[in-house]
Amino acid sequence: MLSSELKCLLDSAAFLRRITRTFTNMAKPRAISLFSGCGGSDLALQRSGFKIVWANDIWEPACETYRDNIDSPRIETGDITKFKKFPKADLLVGCYPCQGYSQGGKRKWNESINFLYREFDRVLRTAKPKAFIVENVNGMAYGESRSLLENQLRRYRLAGYRVKWQVLNAKDFGVAQSRRRVFLVGIRSDIKIEYTFPEPTHGPGRRRFVSQYDAIGHLPRWPQGEFNKEPFHWYYLSRKRRLPWGKQSPCIVGHWRHVPLHPLSPPLKRIDTDHWKFTRQGRARRFTYRECALLQGFPRSFKWKKGNVRERFQMIGNAVPPPLFQAVVQALPKNWN
């Protein structure tokens, strides 16, 4: 039996730990996350000191993976249009899909999925956070697709935010992948602070780029069951899908049929416009989902237990690289008052 004095001390210590945790959580800035997927953006938020008070995605396998990896998960599965009330927050983030404006594949600009930014705008006007961050495909920043970007900027400025945008490449921020994405950052107009996008941390004159070998060189060369074994269709070989070990990977996509080639595959040679072929005989394969995750900047400890193999590729390819999102988040001014 514990003495009454010792029991009292232990109870006091436990009470102090609870109080410390409570005040620590109260001191953290609060964030709402929309279109959260498997948690690439929210992993970056937590690493940056934010408390995620609510998150949402429509796809259950992604939400289950999120719950496996994000501390104290507050994610609800469901169509964002069905949610009407949101908690108070300092920051709103969202990586809503706009596949019709991707630079890869056939564009269908008039599909409803390309207008989910309207739901982000609705939540922004309801929650009125101090700031917001949006990540999306960089195709909307160019050519005829530019109108979609302009529509978003107009909406968010009318909602009462000073908005800046910039295209960033993940490889410039320590990711072993060349992946260009557009970011929109808004600060509420009544807050007299300015946002400046982060400067690259990797590249010429800085830290060296992270290579494919750095990210995945330790993994098995031919792990059965973790990659798509379909033949390489002519459409697959319409692009340069393979880069050597010392380079960064081409962009990781959400469809397992179209992810890039592993560097152990024979090199490719351009034959004609949209036509490449292998320069020699030899075994060739696409990346595995575990390799794609590491090339996206997810940590090795991230758990991929939910969904089938094809769904894991989709979760990973649709995610924002955590190191890239973290760089954008940490460039926010520290003074939230």
Topology:
Elements: H1 4-27, E1 30-34, H2 40-47, E2 51-57, H3 60-69, E3 75-77, E4 91-94, H4 117-127, E5 131-137, H5 146-158, E6 161-169, E7 180-188, H6 212-216, E8 268-272, E9 275-278, H7 289-295, H8 309-318, H9 322-330
Parallel strand pairs: 1-2, 1-4, 2-3, 4-5
Antiparallel strand pairs: 5-7, 6-7, 8-9
Helix pairs in contact: 2-9
Radius of gyration: 22 Å
Give a count of the beta strands, DSSP E runs of length 2 or more: 9
Share of residues in strands: 15-25%
| pLDDT < 50 stretches | none
**Estimated helix fraction:** 25-40%
Order of helices and strands: HEHEHEEHEHEEHEEHHH
End-to-end CA span: 50 Å
Q: Supply the number of helical segments.
A: 9
Oligomer: single chain
Shape: globular
Explain how this protein is built.
The protein is α/β, with parallel strands linked by helices and 337 residues long. It has helices at residues 4-27, 40-47, 60-69, 117-127, 146-158, 212-216, 289-295, 309-318, 322-330, and strands at 30-34, 51-57, 75-77, 91-94, 131-137, 161-169, 180-188, 268-272, 275-278. A seven-stranded mixed sheet has the order 3-2-1-4-5-7-6, sandwiched between helices. It has a two-stranded antiparallel ribbon with strand order 8-9. The protein is globular and about 65 Å long.
